[in-house]
Design brief:
The complex is a heterodimer of chains A (308) and B (123). Chain A is an alpha+beta fold and 308 residues long. Helices cover 17% and strands 35% of the residues of chain A. In chain B, strands 1-3-4-5-2 form a 5-stranded antiparallel sheet, covered by helices on one side. The termini of chain B are close together. The chains are: A alpha+beta (308), B alpha+beta (123). Bound molecules: zinc ion.
Chain lengths: 308, 123
């Protein structure tokens, strides 16, 4: 059985266990813990203050009540930790939280005793990510007061092999892993942009109501507030408005310095990008530049800039 | 709909990172011990996820009204929020349907988006 098959077999077994029996919060929902949280967050919402007479806890504290605390250990049957251990043993030693989706059925009240259950939702991988090869592990937690569901959470982590580890372990004959790249957020607001770079087009978001161009992309027009949006294809010509020379700290897989410019596009918006064919001493503010596209992999093509 | 929430700029300090980690009962060393955080390959300590959630709640309720009921917070986590950086929240009302408003929220630091996501509130 391959390592991947072993991981997925364990995932299936743990998924099959369903929700854990449930773990009680150390303390009932209480005002001193709420007060500490409000102070630390700088949250002055009077609704949660002592003496408000409402006795409600902030909704995003739901998970706080059942945190393990200092030195607390997950029970042996905890599905998330079980899956984490399987992946750690398979060499995926590092962990990074990627998504957290909480639903609040109702606000908790001071004095209530909360209990949490956890189930393993899915394990997806292996995926090549900017951090290294890894598996996305999604768990689902449910908070109860008695038998009543008060909150739920879908929590996703990337459990991965850090790149440096991959490189150390790779035999010399194996080619270096892909160049390290900080992956930009890709979502429904920015999809058109990355579809464009993949197709060799530099696209600028436009407002279909007033025609204004904007960058970075966003759901609403900052000029008129309209949500109806489209895009235009830029000429790809611009000038250096500003730049930085990145000399330190080191970036894995990259030779320094890296030159990053803010480019004034002909169309009137500014974008940040790497300048790829210039020495630091030769960069000048106002220098004309032209866009080029650097394909990283199937999912990402970055726009970069060359002196014209 | 389409309404834009006024931005909120929050300076990240070691005290903020540590006090919120402890207040959320998260004792992972990367949220309070710089030496250990750097030993794990981080530049410095960084905000924990429960705090990112709590700050998103605070941003939306500070802007839309303290009595508004928050129904859900769904966030995607990106760049770490380290001390001496600034976390800038921006938000837009994306939709209002059946008495529920969905707010698109973004919290950016110098490294990029620390958090992006949606908050659902009872309109
Ligand atoms: Zn417009």
């Amino acid at each position: 059985m391959s390592l991947h098959d072993q991981v997925m077999a364990e995932a299936a077994r743990i998924q099959g266990l369903g929700e854990t029996a449930g773990r009680e919060a150390r303390d009932p929902v209480n005002q001193p813990t709420i007060n500490n949280w409000l102070e630390a967050m700088g949250n002055t919402n009077p609704r949660f203050a002592a003496g408000s007479g409402r006795g409600e806890a902030p909704p995003s504290m739901a998970q706080v009540w059942t945190m393990y605390g200092l030195g607390g250990k997950p029970p042996a049957d905890d599905p998330l930790h079980g899956m984490m251990n399987v992946l750690t043993d398979a060499g995926y030693t590092a962990v990074l939280g990627t998504n957290c989706e909480q639903e609040y059925v109702r606000y908790l009240r001071v004095g209530e005793q909360v209990r949490v259950t956890t189930a393993l939702d899915s394990v997806v991988g292996p995926k090549q990510t900017a951090m290294g090869e890894g598996y996305f592990v999604t768990s689902r937690s449910t908070w109860y007061v008695g038998s009543e569901v008060v909150a739920t959470m879908l929590f996703r982590v990337l459990k991965y092999k850090p790149r440096s580890v991959v490189e150390e372990r790779a035999p010399a004959s194996v080619s270096k892993p892909e160049t390290f790249v900080l992956r930009p957020m890709q979502n429904r607001d920015t999809e058109f942009f990355w579809d464009g770079t993949a197709a060799g087009e530099l696209r600028i978001q436009s407002c279909n109501a007033c025609g204004a161009l904007r960058f970075p992309p966003g759901p609403a027009c900052p000029d008129c507030g309209a949500l109806d949006r489209g895009h235009v294809v830029a000429s790809g010509r611009g000038t250096v408005f500003s730049y930085v020379v990145h000399r330190h700290p080191p970036v894995p897989g990259r030779d320094l310095p890296i030159l990053i410019a803010v480019v004034d596009l002909e169309e009137g918006v500014r974008m940040v990008g790497e300048l790829v064919n210039v020495e630091p001493d030769d960069i000048k503010i106002g220098m004309p530049v032209t866009v080029d596209f650097r394909r990283i992999d199937d999912d990402l093509t970055l726009p970069v800039w060359r002196t014209s | 709909m389409g309404d834009v929430l006024a931005p909120w700029e929050l300076p990240i300090t070691p005290t903020l990172v540590v006090s919120t980690a402890i207040a959320t009962r998260d004792f992972q060393d990367v949220h309070h011990d710089r030496d250990l955080a750097q030993g794990h390959g981080s530049k410095d300590i960084f905000l924990n996820i429960l705090t990112s959630n709590g700050l998103v709640e605070r941003y939306v309720t500070d802007r839309l009204g303290h009595d508004i009921d928050v129904l859900g917070i769904a966030i995607r986590l990106g760049a770490p929020a380290h001390p001496y950086d600034t976390l800038t929240f921006t938000g837009t009302v994306a939709s209002v349907e059946d008495g529920v408003a969905t707010i698109d929220v973004r919290g950016a630091v110098s490294l990029g988006d620390h958090v992006t996501g949606t908050v659902r509130v009872r309109a």
